[in-house]
Every structure is written in structure tokens, then in C-alpha cells.
Amino acid sequence: MTQLPKTLAARVALVLSIGAVAAALVWTAITAGGAPDPTVPQTGPHAAIFDIGILVFREGLECVLVLAAITANMTGARRAYQRPVFGGVGFGIVATALTWLFAVRIIDDLTGVIPALELQALTGLAAIVVLLIVMNWFFHKMYWTGWIARHTTRKQDLLEGAEEQTTSTSTLLWGLAALGFSSFYREGFEVVLFLQSYRLKLGAEPVAAGVAVGLALTSIVAVLTFVAHRRLPYRRMLVLTGIMLGGVLLVMVGEQAQEMQLAHWLTTTPIQSLRFLPAWSGLWFAVFPTVETLAAQAIAALLVLGSYFVAERRANAAS
Which residues lie below 8 Å from residue 318, measured CB to CB, with a gap of 6+? Predict the structure, then answer.
């Protein structure tokens, strides 16, 4: 039996995958029970796990990229310098866990002071701010030209100072540890803020599941990078996860607008012509037939796309 060419096999697999997804969506639409009610909370745990997993993986991917840049030339006699860097990462993990406990304590204390819907709306706004910052940094390329460059320059200064004996051993070790710490904790702090909204709405189990998915994917990339020493297409991976994060942003904005409606911070203006929308469109994509939710999602999309085109125009003008 002759084997299919790889390109043909890939196309067949792609078509079958798309068909399976389409069939699942049609089946869900038939069994979902009509259009989503914009006056009823619509957050689904499975969609939340997906969103959380994507964000954790994206932040983890950025952390791996920074650490790879820091440890790039730490080979041979310099290999020992990797230990304080990863020691700093360990401190970053501990600091992130403590930050999580601190954030949980504060928000739980606020539950007795602020009504539940209003507190969910506030934490949801914080999560959207985190996503907007991540997306803005991504499109403005600040991450590449600023954050990584500063870490690489600082590392080079420390190593050159140690070789020229102008920097003490303790300063070198603490400096490298600080680089590892900041590389991890910046991402961890953003994730902690992002997760509080989902924890309030769905509890700890979906949050833990989403974090586990994101950490599993990040661990695979980390092992391939630091253990197997593979050169991965980081830019393509970041572009892909950036696009997926754009979808997560729109979902969160839709959910946030709906929560603000439930808390009576926003009015609810149903669009009767869109009442045909199936229930899964609200459960998975936070698309509700109201003026306020759709307008909020449109504004968020314009902000992200607008920042991208402004950054591209400035880059072209500078060149």
C-alpha cells in the first residue's frame, strides 16, 4: 500500500480536525437550548481553563525566552554562572506563591465589605488591564527592545566585571540571581492578578487546572531549551500565542461587560436581531446579543489593532 505524501496527509488531517470541531459546535448548538440570556452569568469552566492555560503558557514562554538570552553564552567555564540565575528563578517561584496567598487574603477580606458581583467586576477589570498590558507590550515590541536588552546588558556587565576583577563574587552572584528572579516574578505577578477574577467566579479547581495546563506546556519548552538545547521558533510561538491571547482578551471583555451589567454598572440593551445566537456563543466566546457587550469588545479590538498599526508606523518612520 502506497503512503500518502506528507503534505497531502497534513491536509487530510487538517480537514478532519476542522470537520470534528465543526461537528462539535453544531452538536453543542443543537443541544444548548437557545440563545444566551445576557442577564444570567455565562462563564464556563472549560473555557476558563483554556484561557488560563493560554495566558500561563504565554507568560511562561516569555520567561523561558528571557532566561535563554541570559544564559546564552554561559558555557564552558561560565556554566557555573547558570546556578545563581536559576536560583533566582526559585526565589521568584516562592515570591509568586506568596503574592498569590497575599492577593487571595486581601480579596477574601473584601468579600465581606463589597457585594460579590461588584467585587467580581473589579477583579475582572484588573484582569483585562493585565491582558491589555501584555498585548500592548507585544505589539509595541517593548519586550524585545527593552526588557530582554536590559537583562542581557546587565548580565554582560556582571560577567565582564568578574573577569576583570572589578566586581566581587558576592555582587556577581546576587546580580545574576536578581536577573533570574525578575525574569520569573514579572510574569508571575501578572498571572496572579489575572487569575483572581476566575477564582472568584469559578473557584480554585478550574484555576488550578488551567495553571497546570499552562505549566505543562511551559515545562516542555523549558526542557527542550535548557536540557535538550534545542533552538525553538520562539518568535512564531509568541506570535501564535499572541493571536490566541487576543481572542482571550475579547472573551474577557465580553464577560466583564456582562458582569458590569449584572452589577448594574452598565445598562442592558438587547439586540433583538441577534437573539438567534446559540447559548454556546456566550458560554465559550462571551458573545451576547447586547449593545454594551459587543461595543466593549469592538473597542478592545480597536485598541489592540490601533496600537499595532501605530507601532508599525513609528518603526517604519524610524527606519
Answer: none
> Measured at the alpha carbon of residue 85, what is the angle toward residues 135 and 64, in degrees to the nearest 5?
35
Spacing of C-alpha 202 from chain mean position: 18
Locate cell 509568541: which residue? 238
Cα separation, 239 vs 87, whole angstroms: 29
* Claim: this prediction has a pTM higher than 0.70: yes
Return the ∠ at Cα 301 (arms to 42 and 187), rounded to 5°. 80
Question: What is the tens place of the pLDDT at every residue in 184-230?
Answer: 999 999 999 999 988 988 889 999 999 999 999 999 999 999 988 88
Q: How far apart are CA 199 and CA 203, in angstroms?
A: 5
* Cβ proximity of 127 and 194 under 8 Å: yes
> Quick one: cell of 235?
518568535
Handedness of CA 34, 35, 38, 44 (dihedral sign): positive
Provide the 10 A C-beta neighbour count for residue 252. 26
CA–CA distance, 192 with 182 (Å, rounded to integer): 15
- What are phi and psi for residue 309, nearest 5 degrees? -65, -35
